[in-house]
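Example 273, ligand zinc ion.
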Amino acid sequence: MSHVGDASEVGDVSEMNDGLDVGGTGEGRGQAARPAVPLPVVPDADWSRVLCIVAHPDDMEYGTSAAVATWTRRGVEVSYLLLTAGEAGMAEPPDVVAPLRAAEQRNACAAVGVTDLRILGHPDGMLEYGLALRRDIARVVRQVRPDAVVTANFDVEAYGGFNQADHRAAGLAVVDGVRDAANPWVFRELTEEGLTAWHTGALLVANPSQPTHAVPVDEDAVRAAVASLNCHEAYLRHVVGHPAPDVMIPEILRAGGTAAGTDYAAAFRYYGL
Ligand SMILES: [Zn+2]
């Protein structure tokens, strides 16, 4: 996501670099040589529900949505939870941008077989790590009861520079909120809402600098992922110099494939919980 008039104007241009650094095309690793030991495949065969939690509209669309398309095609139910509406990401006023980006995200979800889109109202660009955010994440984890949660890279340094502030706050809160959801003694108001504790079995961090696992994807999934990014039409027009999705996304997924020993793959850091 980007912010008009400040240094993070190119915020999502930094996201566009996600892929340029995934799976081994980054600085010093750019020769796309197949590794001696390919990344293992994410052990997703038994999953029936996945919950993807990110800060902004479009955060799922930089290669990760190819994995989503692969899962939904197999019958896995995938839900998206956006912590903000991305309302501070364009030149137009937030009250115009929020519904516009929600509509674009709904289309992006449809492109990869996702119908459950939830958008929280935390402030875009000012997302705060804290108990309120952890509780809101834990609530949705308990509602969805996923086998796995996916979030985006939340390292301080990511995508070829400093990561965006909301991304850092979001990722850390996701890690904690997922664990909070499993503990019946924290956020007891959630229990009063009728939401019982839920233990999520796996956490995946998308587009990490050092992936541990991959989801191999086929050309249909690559096409769906390109389509999902193309759905953020007004937003992409706003980001000056954004590379064409039909060039950028295959490049990201080809890099993942190189690391995984396949043509195309989405790369992740995988944690069993
Ligand atoms: Zn973002």
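Summary: The first helix runs from residue 11 to 16.
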